[in-house]
Amino acid sequence: MPRIMNRREALKLAVAGGVATTLQACGSRLSHGAPINAETAPRFEAALPIPPVLEPARSDEHGDYYEVEGTRLRITRTAKVGSPSMEFGN
Question: What pTM did the predictor assign?
Answer without folding.
Answer: 0.30
